[in-house]
Specification:
Number of helices: 10
Helix content: 55-70%
Distance between the termini: 62 Å
Number of strands: 5
Order of helices and strands: HEEHHEEEHHHHHHH
Oligomer: single chain
Radius of gyration: 19 Å
Number of domains: 1
Strand order of the largest sheet: 3-5-4
Shape: globular
Strand content: 5-15%
């Protein structure tokens, strides 16, 4: 019976192997709707336990930038995404399946203009577009018996819930964001660059943003960058994609997309 169960699981894993938007092979076992429900529940928990900034200026700027970016998604609409600004000095942001975006107030001191803010929000939305949360949950499910994780997905209380939050990108303490893997971060960098350019933002500001983030860490990468590729690798990746991004941004401007979020 055990051999049969393992064979069935192996067949399921093979069937669920799909490519990412940039062609990387990965495992997706769960329906998008199920992962979206987890994202919505996690976001609601954060809003209950983390203080909101309650700053109309920051909220307006975040909504303006996020709205321009999500409008570039297939069937995207700013009204279908919820954006919240949390009172937290760390320069960070996140996005969760189910159309949820969180921005820390500390990010606005590092992202010095709308294009740099679009770099971060585009990066985080790219994690959702590339289904990275589903990939993490699926990989953990396949690596374990799946029983404990299945209980967490079904909503059963216990330590499994903390594990599930971590897989979605949230730490055991709500508001502590756990990083994605290096390959996932690299994909989010490049997909995010495409998204911000398609919305009419200046993709060249992406490099300036990452330089600001490095300075904010006192010469060491802040937590936001802890598992990202090295600065040299990131700059090379962005530079290689920059001509394509600039062409996309120019096309967007010709179509009248000129964000004014400052």
């Amino acid at each position: 019976m055990r051999v049969g169960w393992l064979a069935a699981l192996a067949a399921l894993v093979v069937a669920a192997c799909v490519t990412s938007p940039l062609g990387r092979q990965r495992l997706l076992l769960f329906p998008d709707a199920e992962i979206a429900q987890l994202g919505v529940a996690s976001f609601d928990k954060m809003k209950r336990e983390m203080p909101l900034a309650n700053d109309p200026v920051l909220e307006s700027r975040a909504r303006c930038v996020a709205g321009a970016i999500v409008a570039q998604l297939e069937g995207g609409s700013a009204r279908s995404w919820e954006i919240a600004v949390f009172r937290d000095d760390s320069p960070n942001a996140f996005a969760l399946p189910g159309g949820k975006i969180g921005v820390n107030s500390g990010l606005f001191s590092v992202a010095q203009n709308q294009d740099q803010l679009a770099t971060v929000i585009g990066h985080e939305v790219a994690h959702v577009v590339a289904q990275h949360a589903n990939e993490r949950v699926s990989t953990a499910f396949a690596a374990q018996t799946g029983l404990e994780l299945a209980q967490a997905i079904s909503g059963a209380p216990g330590g499994e819930q903390s594990q599930l939050l971590a897989l979605l990108g949230l730490g055991a303490q709500v508001g502590i964001l756990l990083p994605y893997g290096r390959e996932q971060e690299r994909e989010a960098d490049l997909i995010g660059l495409d998204l911000m350019a398609a919305a009419g933002f200046d993709p060249r500001e992406s490099i300036a943003l990452w330089q600001n983030m490095a300075k904010a860490g006192g010469g060491q990468p802040p937590e936001f960058l802890s598992t990202h590729p090295s600065h040299g690798t990131r700059m090379q990746d962005l530079a290689r994609r920059m001509p394509q991004a600039l062409a996309r941004a120019e096309e967007a401007r010709q179509r009248g997309l000129r964000p004014a979020c400052n």
